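Sample 1 of the test manifest.
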Amino acid sequence: MDELKIADKTFSSRLLVGTGKFASNTVMAEAIAASGSQVVTVALRRVDIENENDNLLAAIDRSKYLLLPNTSGARDAAEAVRLARLARAASGIHWVKLEVTPDPYYLLPDGEETLKAAATLVKEGFVVLPYMNADPILAKKLQDVGCATVMPLASPIGSNQGLKMRSSIAIIIEQATVPVVVDAGIGAPSHAAEAMEMGADAVLVNTAIATAANPVAMATAFKLAVQAGRMAYVSGLAAQGIMASASSPLTGFLRNP
Amino acid sequence: MMMKLKINGVDKLFDADNAPATLAELLAQMKIDEATVVAEIDGAIVPREAFAAARLTDGMTLELVRFVPGG
């Protein structure tokens, strides 16, 4: 069985999904089910003390899905560590998707602060999955401080631009000793398949599913694309070449020499 | 005497007769399901099991957070 192993857990699905931007919790729950995913991300925010609060966790069956809290909103290492600790107290699990994004326009991660937070959280016993720029050197450093995965961005969060960082991600995949999860910017099933064909261990998708006209069907499309891409990678893609290479025999033509 | 708490960045005043004695009482008063919340009092995380024992006093700063959809 071709399973994904992260830290001490194994997963048959290589698609991780986010819970943001869905029209309702019902649609979200159906889409997550259709995606076949076993890991779902959530964020942590202040309770609205004036209004009634939606109970997100009521919509997520935690016997089926591993909850992966993120540290979104953190602008530096200290804020990310604080959010991770709160998330652990809230969920009872010690897995965290580490995000440190000081820039509100492009939401690009701060590598230096991410590395600092990762080192602290690993020491505190967290399983750390860091969101990062597609920087092969940073990926090695994150791996060296004990992160359970590296999660390079394909393109900016929610941009749906696909694998703009393709060549750097290829280097990260080549060097990594922990699973590489391509996160952010994957806008279409073809992008997900492409990442998997390159040898990524998994992809994380949110916006492309949640904001599709039919999120449930799109979740299915992503599930199939990830499976197809993985199968293609494992099967060994045929070599590319500049010249044509005939698929049909070059003998026995119906013509005279 | 009034009790002042800063909750999620907002100052809240409570009359002496309805001032919550504990975090659990505060959540009940605010109709917040404590199973969905995690709290910090003056920067220290309070585990859910300790909500009923966490005493509130004038001037404390509280953060009440919960999981929301996110990517």
